Amino acid sequence: MLLKALLVVSLLFPFCTSIDTIEMDQHVKDGDLLVSKENIFALGFFSPRNSSSRYVGIWYVQKDQKAVVWVANRNDPINDTSGVLTIDRYGRLLLYSNNMQNIPVWSTNVTVQTASFSCRAQLLDSGNLVIYRDNKSKKFMWQSFDYPTDTLLPGMKLGVNWKLGIEWVLTSWKSQDNPGTGEYTNRLYSNQTATPEFFIFYKGLTPHWRSAPVDAGTLVSNQDEMYFFLKNDSTSTRVVLKDSGLVQHLRWNNADREWKELWSGPKYRCDLYGECGANSKCSPDNIISFECDCLPGYEPKSVNDWNMRDGSDGCVSKRVAVSKCRNGEGFMKVARVKDPDTTKAARLEKGISVKECEQVCLSNCSCTAYMVIESEGRSDCLTWYGELLDILVYTQAGRDLHVRVDKIELAENSQNSKDFLKRRGMLAVLMLSVLLALVLIVSLACWRIKKKRKTKETRRHPELQFFHLRTIIAATNNFSPVQKLGQGGFGTVYKGVLRNNQNIAVKRLSRTSEQGVEEFKNEVALIARLQHRNLVKLLGCCIKGQERMLVLEYLPNKSLDCFLFDHTKKSLLDWQKRFEIINGVARGVLYLHQDSRLRIIPRDLKTSNVLLDAEMNPKISDFGMARIFHGDQLQDRTNRVVGTYGYMPPEYVVFGRFSTKLDVFSFGVILLEIVSGKKNNSFHQEDHFVNLIGHVWQLWSEDRALEIVDSSLESYTPDEAMRCIQVGLLCVEEESKNRPSMSAVVFMLSGEASAPSPQQPAFSLRKNSSGDAAVPSVSKGSCSINDVTITKFEGR
Ligand SMILES: *[C@@H]1O[C@H](CO)[C@@H](O)[C@H](O)[C@H]1NC(C)=O
Ligand SMILES: *[C@@H]1O[C@H](CO)[C@@H](O)[C@H](O)[C@H]1NC(C)=O
Ligand SMILES: *[C@@H]1O[C@H](CO)[C@@H](O)[C@H](O)[C@H]1NC(C)=O
Ligand SMILES: *[C@@H]1O[C@H](CO)[C@@H](O)[C@H](O)[C@H]1NC(C)=O
Ligand SMILES: *[C@@H]1O[C@H](CO)[C@@H](O)[C@H](O)[C@H]1NC(C)=O
Ligand SMILES: *[C@@H]1O[C@H](CO)[C@@H](O)[C@H](O)[C@H]1NC(C)=O
Ligand SMILES: *[C@@H]1O[C@H](CO)[C@@H](O)[C@H](O)[C@H]1NC(C)=O
Fold first, then answer.
1. Which of 59, 400, 515, 698 could form a disulfide bond with 519, CB atoms 3.0-4.6 angstroms apart?
2. Residue 652 belongs to domain with CATH number
3. Is residue 457 part of a domain?
4. Partners of 210 in the beta sheet?
5. 444: in domain
6. Gene3D superfamilies annotated for this entry (predicted)?
7. Is residue 601 located within the same domain as residue 627?
8. Alpha helices of 591-702 — where are they, by DSSP H?
9. Are 186 and 282 in a shared domain?
């Protein structure tokens, strides 16, 4: 491959002594290579990975040919192999293609106006493509090192030259297939009044992360310019800013013939700029609990978000009323941190001792913190004026930050208060204690009033919460498989734990309905307003791009079917419990049909959608799905029905017609299943090919209805059981108009209203043969967990 390339090159430049140079009468065609003297770098045309576009680039010859370190026409690809690179009399590199005959696709920008016939371009062994005017002058008219793409090589500079008005930055590729200018870039932060310098990596225009302060050994700073460079230790090394925003410092390992990573970033969530907002610190080691923590004297701005492990709002002063200006204030140490962001309001004063630095900060009431930087036997003083941003806690490295706090914070801190005692004596202590006690009493009273008011308010407005994706990610440990509770027709459900230790269930919706974000929010907000003790509480949602997630109350017990149809767990449901569950489900459905203003028709009631809380109280889940997914439209469009066979009445299965009577039918099936402990759609009776409904009807008409009661029950109340069976049969009647309303159901179950005689129910005579829609096969032992629906979307 290399030999072939060399051959091509020597054929191309038959009269040239070197193949690393293009002179004015020469050019590089697609397929030719320019190779540096020591055979280290090559320049030529290439196509990235899956792309067919052609670019002019520089890459390693012997190492990793895929590692392209520089791209000329990164935003001006050529779509065929007609590209030709040449140099003109003004020392400009020009790239032509067939598609644009006389206009170069790309060119360098050289300001020299006088033409010369001795311009030449040369690829050096450092990877630098340079343009000379003639032999004598070794000064480059132009060099590729001044126009980095995504890679820093030894010999290149990253930073700024104020005199020439040049800024050297890396810019990521758009993607691995497209070297075009991507969204990540980095700047060496260059405010001479506020060293130390560090890199800020931007995503678009917003800071993405901030590096640790740049090591003085790799930084040059003078009047004209300031830049970072890679130390040349004779091995091959490079820094690359990848299209994902990841920065890697790599070194070539000759033995393994691969690039090894020396360091990379951002590594932790804490590295991300402002992850914890203002006046807070981020500890990567605290990932299990919560990485954000307020600085001394500060408290979360939004306790709610904080509890949900979202620190982006940051912290505010605990006591606005207590001045931190000549009012007994002081400093508290936060050990081993990355210096807060100095780009906004910070000041560096050189040659100032530790004690003086404290005084510098103390004497200016706008000063919020100081840090002493000790190097080479000298100490400099760095002070901040305003919000403290992007503080990361290191376990080993880092410098101590001293944060200005008011006198109360100071006193509360035991160590500092010792100094305080010495200085002010016992009297001050006494006065302070009295003051403290007073403050404590007052704040306690305030807190109580606040709390009372708050609970009142929350009771009045059960607000829908919008969760940040990162809150959900933190709570579910990034959707860890360990947290997965189950999977259903609407998506996967994960268990999550919020910062305040509240358990939640996160339903990550797999199907996207056609509704937009606003419509989705509206539906979720409407559904969240439905609050009933027999409904699973919808706490909020999370929307990020195409992702839609519902955040629900977490119930420790599984769904009703897991108990009802399990030989051992059945015993946990005695008759009294079963009767309570039946009544609870009935009240839940009644609320949805009538009491709520929304008139929800869940359409998918079944035992697996009835969850049990710690006290085995039933809670209906998934009741809003038809609304969220626009069930009716879905059905119109695709001719499919939402629901689960065995729980659906004939008018819905056959005609797709639905009304509240659909739910009444499903409720009837659930009721009979609870009483019998048997599944309707997997019911087998030795001689008779009938389903549960048919079997109950048969026994009812033979006056043997109570025989259907689950034989595993040690005892039951015949009165109540009989009432249940009768109501159940009424609910599953063939004609929807003959089925009772849910309010009638509730009354009849309680015995306050008498029930009429049921007629022959729907599906009662259907045979349990394969292909019969009424009695499909259902995998045995399948059981849903927490909030999982096993809804099937099947054609009719
Ligand atoms: C690129 O091509 C490879 C194999 O040809 C394929 O596996 C990969 O998915 C492609 N990547 C993209 C982003 O198209
Ligand atoms: C390349 O792009 C030009 C316009 O930009 C177009 O006219 C030409 O047909 C394209 N050639 C190929 C081979 O796609
Ligand atoms: C070329 O450089 C000049 C002066 O530095 C600048 O004004 C101009 O925008 C540049 N043109 C291009 C195409 O980069
Ligand atoms: C440049 O130097 C080369 C050899 O070093 C020589 O052959 C060539 O004539 C020189 N060109 C000019 C324009 O001086
Ligand atoms: C790096 O160092 C080697 C020898 O140590 C030297 O040959 C090479 O020119 C240097 N490269 C740069 C870019 O300074
Ligand atoms: C440098 O920082 C100071 C004080 O923080 C600020 O006033 C000044 O505008 C900054 N200068 C630049 C060039 O950003
Ligand atoms: C305090 O510091 C700020 C920011 O550097 C400065 O603008 C202000 O003048 C200083 N105030 C005093 C009283 O020195």
1. 515
2. 1.10.510.10
3. no
4. 200
5. no
6. Bulb-type lectin domain, Phosphorylase Kinase, domain 1, Transferase(Phosphotransferase) domain 1
7. yes
8. 625-628, 631-638, 650-655, 660-676, 692-701
9. no
Half-sphere CA count of 626, side-chain side, radius 13 A: 22
Does 565 lie in the same domain as 614? yes
Are 262 and 305 members of one domain? no
| Residues 524 and 578 occupy one common structural domain | no
Q: Which residues are near ligand 4 (CB < 6 Å)? A: 118, 134-135
Mean pLDDT for all residues in the chain:
81
* Residue list, ligand 1 pocket, CB within 6 Å: 49-50, 177
Question: How high is the pLDDT of residue 383?
Answer: 94
Same domain, 238 and 276: no
* Tokens linked to 556: 């420790």
Which of 107, 109, 141, 146 to probe ligand 3 with, by most ligand atoms within 8 A of CB? 109
Q: Are residues 597 and 537 in the same domain?
A: no
Residue with tokens 């559904």: 527
Closest CA to 127 of 51, 185, 56, 59: 59
Whole-number Å distance between alpha carbons of 551 and 443:
34
| pLDDT tens-digit map of 540-550 | 888 887 788 89
Examine residue 402 and state whether it is found in any structural domain, yes or no. Answer: yes
Report which of 668, 666, 664 is spatially closest to residue 676, judged by C-alpha positions. 668
* Residue whose CA is at the smallest distance from ligand 1 atom 12: 50
Token readout for 14 is: 């038959």
Residue 85 alpha carbon to ligand 4 centre in Å:
22
- Residue 640 makes CB contacts below 8 A (sequence gap 6+) with 634, 793, 794, 795, 796
In sequence order, the 6+-apart residues with CB closer than 8 A to the CB of 705 are 696, 699, 722, 725, 726
From 147, 179, 208, give the residue that closes a domain.
Answer: 147
pLDDT for position 82: 93
Q: Which residues contact 346 (CB under 8 A, 6 or more apart)?
A: 194, 340, 382, 383, 384, 385
Range name among 260-269, 416-425, 495-504 with the lowest pLDDT average:
416-425
Residue 597 pLDDT level (bands cut at 50, 70, 90): low
CA 41/CA 19 separation, integer angstroms: 12
Residue 395: its pLDDT value, please? Answer: 76
Which is the catalytic residue, given 30, 150, 341, 604?
604
Is 488 part of any domain? yes
Task: Give the residue whose CA is nearest to atom 11 of ligand 1.
Answer: 50
**What total of structural domains would you count in the chain?**
5
Range of the domain at 234: 156-267
Q: How confident is the model at residue 718 (pLDDT cuts 50, 70, 90)?
A: very high
124 in the same domain as 75: yes
